[in-house]
């Protein structure tokens, strides 16, 4: 076992539940590296939702709450208020985060509560077998959009921005080092930090949406479709269609953080 | 601090009880007739270095309570029917993960939006069976402002001891009635205690001989806790596809409550000696029933009252113990007769059990109960 895994993985929870070729392992890997580099391993509190993505923290030997589908951010809100000094990190899928959990997501961003939310976006419902997700592209085929998806997808980063998040980054599994760096920045950032990672899902998205169950093909697709934010500005709408804009999309420090407000405002008033 | 006497609402008494019991976290969403609890928590919690958050909905509220509980705080929420329904998945989560927390349900009439400002006792079964799957909880039923305080304190203490969500089933009458509250100088509050076992020997979900868990570790205490709502083994790892382990978890969740049913019996009796006819009541209805029983005794009718202060687990044995010589039992309640079926189950073979439902938000008048006592 790699020394990082030796130190940080919950061996009793292994082997992982992930399918061969799944991108979630890359995200776990990047996260462990980010934690190690930041030196915050002993100060973590992790929350996962339900779905393949929500399992990520279960494999990590740290304080972990495996919450209900969609409720990870709500659980994390209570946890952060109880333990303001902890690095509270949430792992969730796109369905977990912005479908069933959408309301908690936008309100946590609005409050600017100091959480790091990592959304693993495979554009589909993985765990339940390949149904349409709020991130599934228009007209894409899934198990519940057999004739093509009639819905328009969310851009979760834009949603987070509009709701009031103060740190936003997006990467794919083809940029693991950059992803780890953004996770570090997100954990260091005071306020609601959102890191979206677009991951390959050979078993569900691969089979139903892209017509290939090959992790290598899907990974190549992520790689070739990624466009750095700095480059994206030079491209027109047509050139950007189907592309994944990656990079640090937002960092601002002009909005007060919620936990500090909850405790600080009361003190200021001398209550 | 000496004993203090105040005139307050039942809802306010719940807040005072919660704070006295050590509650330091409240997450809720406003709904009548529970709103005063949230409002007062928002005002008072900061004085105790606690945190109040008005969540975006009731699903968020109960889940934030779960998060705060594992963060080391005693935590609660308050709501009524529609919100209580929305919380059910989270209450089941708390039951499965053995998370201590308190949910105050100030009952109003339903279903759906129902009767926003009218009292009812229609949620008694939802309190017990509201979430999916098999599990047990504890539910307490105050009938007065004083009991709102005392039973809220008790709810927090039971939550800690049994590591279970505890429900305080108040109702609109109790919640909004203003009457005398005597707050004792000292309130017994069971503290949150970390496990006796050190982290390397500790198992998240290993029950002791009494079926209860060894203290409660919080985030940040070095236990690397794994709070898992799938059926799990003692170490917290999922075992949802393992029949024997899953069965064991469910048995444990149920028996840790039912196995302590005697300890969890909380009954107050009035005039039960040599009673021939009994009233079994809980919540607001107790107020009318007391009056009716006193009037009946004055008229020479051998009537008695059994007040259930803990509704779940149901006090089977205690009821049987009180039923000898009793010919008839009346169960007045502000619903279609839900608890009367429980009483029928327990006492049906000893005596006649008569349901006295009151619907639409009406509280039984003493006269209505008295009439039945005499017949
Ligand atoms: C209340 C509720 N509804 C539905 C489910 C079933 N369910 C489990 S995971 C999941 C979707 C998972 O998709 P996503 O969040 O995108 O994560 P992924 O598995 O793709 O990583 C659903 C619908 C559930 N567990 N709870």
Automatic annotation (TrEMBL), chain A:
Gene Ontology biological process: cellular respiration; small molecule metabolic process
Gene Ontology MF terms: oxidoreductase activity, acting on the aldehyde or oxo group of donors, iron-sulfur protein as acceptor; thiamine pyrophosphate binding
Q: Which UniProt keywords apply?
A: Oxidoreductase
Residues annotated as domain Thiamine pyrophosphate enzyme TPP-binding: 57-197
User: What's the superkingdom here?
Assistant: Bacteria
Protein known as: 2-oxoglutarate synthase
Organism whose genome encodes this protein: Desulfoferula mesophila
UniProtKB/TrEMBL annotation, chain B:
Pfam families cross-referenced by the UniProt entry = PFOR_II, POR_N
The answer to keyword Oxidoreductase applying to this record is yes
Ranges for domain Pyruvate flavodoxin/ferredoxin oxidoreductase pyrimidine binding come to 17-243
| Record keywords | Oxidoreductase
Q: What InterPro entries does the record tag this protein with? A: 2-oxoacid_oxidoreductase, PFOR_II, Pyrv_Fd/Flavodoxin_OxRdtase_N, THDP-binding, Transketo_C/PFOR_II
Entry GO MF terms: oxidoreductase activity
Q: Does the keyword Oxidoreductase apply?
A: yes
Q: Where is the Pyruvate:ferredoxin oxidoreductase core domain?
A: 275-369
Q: Its domain of life?
A: Bacteria
Q: Which PANTHER family does the protein's record reference? A: SUBUNIT OF PYRUVATE:FLAVODOXIN OXIDOREDUCTASE, SUBUNIT OF PYRUVATE:FLAVODOXIN OXIDOREDUCTASE-RELATED
- This protein is called 2-oxoglutarate ferredoxin oxidoreductase subunit alpha
State the organism of origin. Answer: Desulfoferula mesophila
């Amino acid at each position: 076992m790699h020394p990082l895994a030796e130190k940080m993985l919950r061996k009793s929870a292994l082997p992982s539940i992930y399918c061969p070729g799944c991108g979630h392992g890359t995200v776990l890997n990047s996260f462990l590296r980010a934690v190690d580099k930041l030196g915050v391993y002993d100060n973590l509190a992790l929350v996962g939702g339900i779905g393949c993505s929500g399992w990520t923290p279960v494999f990590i030997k740290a304080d972990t709450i495996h919450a209900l589908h969609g409720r990870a951010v709500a659980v994390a809100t209570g946890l952060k208020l109880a333990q303001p000094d902890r690095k509270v990190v949430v792992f969730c899928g796109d369905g977990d985060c912005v479908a069933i959990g959408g309301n908690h997501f936008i309100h946590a961003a609005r409050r600017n509560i100091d959480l790091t939310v990592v959304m693993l976006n495979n554009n589909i419902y993985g765990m339940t077998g390949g149904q349409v997700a709020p991130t599934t592209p228009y007209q894409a085929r899934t198990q519940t959009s057999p004739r093509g998806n009639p819905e328009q997808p969310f851009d979760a980063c834009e949603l987070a921005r509009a709701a009031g998040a103060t740190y936003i980054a997006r990467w794919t599994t083809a940029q693991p080092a950059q992803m780890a760096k953004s996770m570090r920045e997100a954990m260091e950032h005071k306020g609601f930090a959102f890191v979206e990672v677009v991951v390959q899902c050979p078993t569900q998205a691969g089979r139903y949406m892209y017509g290939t169950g090959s992790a290598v093909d899907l990974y190549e697709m992520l790689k070739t479709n990624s466009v750095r934010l700095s480059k994206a500005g030079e491209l027109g709408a047509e050139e950007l269609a189907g592309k994944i804009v990656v990079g640090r999309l937002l960092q601002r420090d002009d909005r007060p953080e919620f936990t500090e407000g909850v405790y600080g405002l009361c003190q200021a008033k001398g209550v | 601090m000496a004993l203090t006497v105040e005139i307050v609402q039942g809802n306010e008494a719940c807040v005072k009880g919660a704070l006295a019991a050590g509650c330091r976290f409240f997450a809720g969403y406003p709904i009548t007739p529970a709103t005063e609890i949230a409002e007062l928590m928002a005002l008072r919690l900061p004085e105790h270095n606690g945190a109040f958050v008005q969540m975006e909905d009731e699903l968020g509220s109960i889940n934030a309570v779960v998060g705060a509980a594992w963060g080391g705080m005693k935590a609660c929420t308050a709501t009524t029917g529609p919100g209580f329904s929305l919380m059910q998945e989270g209450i089941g989560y708390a039951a499965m993960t053995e998370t201590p927390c308190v949910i105050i349900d100030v009952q109003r009439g339903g279903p759906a939006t129902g009767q926003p400002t009218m009292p009812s006792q229609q949620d008694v079964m939802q309190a017990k069976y509201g979430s999916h799957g098999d599990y047990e909880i504890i539910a307490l039923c105050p009938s007065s402002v004083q009991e709102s305080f005392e039973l809220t304190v008790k709810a927090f203490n039971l939550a800690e001891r049994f590591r279970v969500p505890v429900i305080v089933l108040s109702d609109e009458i109790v919640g909004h009635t203003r009457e005398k509250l005597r707050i004792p100088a000292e309130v017994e509050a069971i503290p949150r205690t970390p496990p006796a076992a050190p982290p390397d020997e500790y198992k998240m979900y290993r029950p002791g001989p009494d079926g209860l868990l060894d203290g409660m570790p919080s985030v940040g205490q070095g236990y690397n806790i794994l709070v898992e709502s799938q059926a799990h083994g003692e170490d917290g790892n999922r075992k949802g596809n393992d029949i024997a382990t899953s069965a064991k978890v469910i048995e444990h969740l149920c028996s840790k409550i039912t196995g302590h049913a005697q300890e969890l019996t909380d009954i107050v009796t009035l005039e039960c000696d040599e009673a021939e006819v009994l009233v079994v009541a809980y919540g607001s209805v107790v107020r009318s029933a007391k009056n009716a029983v006193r009037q009946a005794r004055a008229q020479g009718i051998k009537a008695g009252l059994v007040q259930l202060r803990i509704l779940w687990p149901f006090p089977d044995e205690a009821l049987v113990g009180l039923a000898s010589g009793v010919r008839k039992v009346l169960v007045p309640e502000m619903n279609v007769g839900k608890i009367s079926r429980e009483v029928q189950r327990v006492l049906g073979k000893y005596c006649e059990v008569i349901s006295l439902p009151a619907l639409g938000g009406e509280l039984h008048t003493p006269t209505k109960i008295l009439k039945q006592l005499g017949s």
